[in-house]
Amino acid sequence: MHRVKVTVVEEALDANNTIAAANRADFDRHRVRVINLMGAPGAGKTTLLERVLGRLEGVRVGVLEGDVQGSLDADRLASLHVPVTQLNTDPSFGGECHLDANMVRSAIGALPLSEIDLLVVENVGNLVCPAEFRIGEDVRAMVCSVTEGEDKPLKYPLMFRACDLVIINKVDLLPYVDVDLERLCAHIDQVHPGVEMIVASGSSGEGLDRWRHWLMAAARPPAQVSLR
Amino acid sequence: MHELALSGAIVNTAVKHARGRPVSAIHLRVGVLRQVVPDTLAFYFAFVARGTLCEGATLDQERIGARLGCRGCAATWGIEIPAFRCPHCGGSEVEILTGQEFEVESIEVEEETACIA
Fold first, then answer.
1. Angle, vertex CA A188, rays to CA A186 and CA A191, nearest 5
2. Range B62-72 average pLDDT
3. Of A45, A119, A140, A159, whose Cβ has the fewest other Cβ atoms within 10 Å?
4. Are the CB atoms for A181 and A159 separated by under 8 Å?
5. Is there a domain that residue A90 lies in?
6. CB of A200 closer than 8 Å to CB of A207
7. CA distance A156 to chain B (A)
């Protein structure tokens, strides 16, 4: 026996990215735009969807609900009369703490792609792993609530950098928590300069109109680029 | 905590390139911006590698520092903390030059010594 060195030079997540590209191609073929919605457990992802999904004018929306276990969130959203597909990472996937491209691929057959323009994938609540795994989305948004503390962007820069939009949620609770909104925004801008932010509250309704319009804009196909 | 999932990706990549040969070492290049904890990755890797061609393989992790470049003023600089605005012109059009790697650079595999007549 002897040792042989084999040069590889391959991004270890290439396999996931390849499947994500296949998902994206399937979504594109059906002209469905896809949002990957991420954030810590309890940040308010489901509530922010609940508050606006029934009012996306002219946009047919569907939800793919990722959870480790159970269908509590899916049940909440189904009452809005939007198609919701549940994807549990527990029984078949060993309780993964995030969705990866392969899990989403396994759910594609169950999605009503020809009946929707926009698919919101609510990822498993987690500030680390979902940032690493592309699932075939067009854009990524995250919910960060003020109760999590103003230091979170500095602790989880990977997640804050992975997003095209950061929703700062639960701002109605600012009087009760030791968080300075300006400093939180400055921390977000420090790790992801120029990223779009929406200051919102699922309870008071602040910022929900901007969030609704952001979703409606995300549902529009990207502008045609002229090659001439 | 993402080290478990990342370990699976490393094992899959190495097994693909090993083409049936047992893997004795994996050389990995990890950028600091990937927020990977080396000891945690080594721990999960040993666990995930069990029963695969990578069982018992050493995982050699090369840490790559973060360097950024400003598209506005062309400055380049290294960072120790997550601060991504250009310190020279304050611009936000900053690209990451190094520090995002998560790459299997090479593997070492065991091969039967062939008799060359």
1. 110
2. 96
3. A140
4. no
5. yes
6. yes
7. 8
Count structural domains, chain A: 1
Fold for the domain defined by B3-65+98-109: hypothetical protein PF0899 fold (3.30.2320)
In a domain, A6, yes or no: no
| Cβ-Cβ contacts under 8 Å for A188 (sequence gap 6 or more) | A144, A153, A160, A166, A168, A195, A197
Angle separating helix axes B3-18 and B38-49, nearest 10 degrees: 50
Please give the pLDDT value at position A221: 76
Q: Is B9 on the interface with A (CB under 8 A)?
A: yes
Average pLDDT, integer, range A69-77: 84
Domain definitions of chain B by residue range: 3-65+98-109
Chain A residue numbers touching B33 (CB-CB < 8 A): 157-158
Report yes or no on A132 lying in a domain: yes
Structural domain range at position A45: 14-218
The ipTM is 0.84
pLDDT bucket at B93, cuts 50 / 70 / 90: very high
pLDDT of residue A91: 60
Q: Domain for residue A173, yes or no? A: yes
pLDDT value at residue A225: 55
Q: Is B41 on the interface with A (CB under 8 A)?
A: no
Residues of A in contact with B106 (CB under 8 A): 5-9
How far apart CA A100 and CA A104 sit, in angstroms, is 7
Confidence tier at B110 by pLDDT (50, 70, 90): very high
List CB contacts of A72: < 8 A, sequence separation 6 or more: none
Given an 8 Å threshold on Cβ–Cβ distance, is A194 in contact with B92? yes
Residues of A in contact with B34 (CB under 8 A): 132, 158
Averaged pLDDT of chain A: 92
